[in-house]
Write a structure and sequence with these properties.
142 residues, alpha/beta, Rossmann fold, 7 strands
Length: 142
C-alpha cells in the first residue's frame, strides 16, 4: 500500500505550490525514483514542464509531458493528466483534484495543498478517501 504525504503550504500562491512541487520532483529524481506528476489538465502539465526548466538555475531534471509514449531514458520524470504508466508509479506527485488511478502500485503519493480554500477542500476529500481505504497519511506543514 502506498505511503501518503500531504504537504500543506501557508501561502495561497499557485506559483509557490508549483515551485514546491519542483523541489519534491528534484528530490525524487535525485533518489533514483521513477516519478510521475499527475495534473488536472494539459495546460497545468505544460506550466509545470516549463517551470522545471527554470526553477533552479543549476538544476537539471530530465522530464517530459506524457502522451502514452515511454521515454527514451528510464529515469525521466513524466508529467500528465492521465493515469501513470506502470513503471512510473513508484512516486506519484499529485497536483490534480483526483486520486491517483492505481494506489496499489504506488510506493509514495505526494499531495501538495496551498492555502486556497478550494484546493484545501479537495485535499480533505482525498485525505478522507485514503483513510477509508485504510491508508494513514503523514502531514507536513510547510
Amino acid at each position: 500500500m502506498a505511503e501518503i504525504s500531504f504537504y500543506i503550504l501557508s501561502t495561497s500562491s499557485v506559483q509557490e505550490r508549483y515551485r514546491f512541487a519542483c523541489k519534491l520532483i528534484e528530490k525524487a529524481y535525485r533518489s533514483g525514483s521513477f516519478c510521475y506528476v499527475q495534473t488536472d489538465s494539459p495546460q497545468q502539465s505544460h506550466t509545470l514542464d516549463e517551470l522545471l526548466w527554470t526553477f533552479r538555475p543549476n538544476s537539471f531534471i530530465p522530464h517530459q509531458i506524457y502522451h502514452n509514449e515511454t521515454p527514451q531514458f528510464p529515469n525521466t520524470v513524466l508529467i500528465g493528466n492521465q493515469a501513470a504508466p506502470a513503471q512510473w508509479q513508484k512516486v506519484i506527485l499529485n497536483l490534480s483534484a483526483n486520486l491517483p488511478a492505481d494506489l496499489n502500485s504506488a510506493e509514495k503519493v505526494l499531495e501538495i495543498l496551498d492555502n486556497n480554500e478550494q484546493i484545501k477542500a479537495m485535499g480533505r476529500d482525498r485525505f478522507r478517501h485514503y483513510k477509508r481505504l485504510g491508508i494513514e497519511s503523514v502531514i507536513h506543514k510547510i
